[in-house]
Predict the structure.
Amino acid sequence: MNQKDLDPDASPQAAFGARLRRLRRERGLSQVELGIPMGYSGTHISGVETGRKFPTLRLARRADAALGTDDMFEREWREMNQGSLLEGFPEYVEHEGQAVELRLFDIGIVPGLLQTPEYARCLASSAVRRGAITHDQADELVAFLAERQSMLVRPRPPMMLVVMDESCIRRQVGGPGVMGAQLDRLLEVAELPNAVLQVAPFEIGERRALALPTNLLTMPDMTVMVYAESQMRGYLERESAAVFPLLTAYHQVQAEALSQAATVAMIRKARKALP
């Protein structure tokens, strides 16, 4: 696709690029001049404008800031990605980057904030093969996860309390190489001063109080909200009547889970079993 045959009706991605180009030109900016305040090269801006590069949420927000378009590009990005992100999740992510404490519980899959790029890519590629998402959506999911992870790297990072069902470290994703690197990453997380990592072992059986992946956020004003997922959609709840029972269940899972020291020992043993 080149400048002459750019068709904004070809796809939402092309429409995004065409709008970016039009507004840039209206302000008399070259691709390089726009890229400087956005933190991107002129080549990258060109790729987005011509549809060769998929725009990320970070790029959309920086385009809004650089071009003075309020949240127009961010809203357009969210419309493009509503097919690959579960309902409620984009709203959750807006709060995630501001939280002072995160409590995470996951089953079968390592929590996204702890995933390596290779692990995340394998999951996204599998969804493409199943026909659940497109290649472009897979690329965006991986890029979006990287942005979420980067938002947690700040001068005063949030406290992360993570409980994983044992299936998260037993279910091999991407083969021994990818899984080995993922387990190494978990061991690194366990060393962080702002993280507590626990495994809920299979042995607790029916005492595992949570049946679905659940994230609880404590915000700077000490309010708590919860995000939980089913197979088809996500739910973000702020009402105390919905939040407190899940907070209690999370505490109960924590109480049944292994200590961090025992968790690290289990992960190391699983790591040694891989090449």
Notes: Residues 188 and 232 are 32 Å apart (CA to CA).
